[in-house]
Amino acid sequence: MSSITLSETAFSEGDLWVFGYGSLMWRPGFEFTERVPARLIGEHRALCVYSFVHRGTPEKPGLVLGLDRGGACRGVAFRITAARRKDTVAYLREREQVTSVYREVMRSVWLENEPRERVSALSYVVDRGHVQYAGRLSLTDQLRHVLQGHGKSGANRDYVLSTVKAIEAAGFRDAPLHQLAAMLHDGHPLHPPRGDD
């Protein structure tokens, strides 16, 4: 399956902004000159991607985050110098597009700084037509996949907990992820309280 990537002409001259909403928040893996809390409107963060490589296998898929349709997402915008743009995009493609489950797009994000400027940022949005698109899973199903998931980047549980920690460090909450993290911390059985899923 071919990756859905941007052409070189899609990138403006000068510095590149990258929007991080999951593991990029706590493990970007590239050099940046600025890191700013940011908000993307029109898509939300969701555990909606079955992980076959980084946090699971095809036999025992884990779950990782994607930007899915609707709502808004708070995350982090990274500024990369023009000189490092090509290398950074190549690195992100190797990391994010390993199974082509994401669409590489430019999205408007609002930087939560003064004067709250709007920039165009490279973002990775889930491809709803991909076999790894999980859709909206119940909390019970999310917990089951996260507990079983382990891939080349480690345990799925660590991915979720590290992301929640990064979200808290940025000064906000993500209610569905926090609920799942609380269950993972508690060693919760696969039976959440009634009404939670």
Descriptors for this entry?
5 helices, two-stranded antiparallel ribbon, 5-stranded mixed β-barrel
Structure described in brief:
The chain has 197 residues and is α+β, with helices and mostly antiparallel strands. It has helices spanning 23-26, 82-96, 139-148, 156-169, 175-185; strands at residues 16-20, 34-51, 62-80, 102-111, 118-126, 150-151, 154-155. It has a single domain, classed as Hypothetical upf0131 protein ytfp.
Spell out the blueprint of helices and strands:
Elements: E1 16-20, H1 23-26, E2 34-51, E3 62-80, H2 82-96, E4 102-111, E5 118-126, H3 139-148, E6 150-151, E7 154-155, H4 156-169, H5 175-185
Parallel strand pairs: 1-5
Antiparallel strand pairs: 1-3, 2-3, 2-4, 4-5, 6-7
Helix pairs in contact: 3-5, 4-5
Return residue spans where pLDDT drops below 50 for at least 5 consecutive residues: 191-197
Task: Give the fraction of residues assigned to helices.
Answer: 25-40%
CATH class value:
Alpha Beta
Query: Class by helix and strand content?
Result: alpha+beta
Number of helices: 5
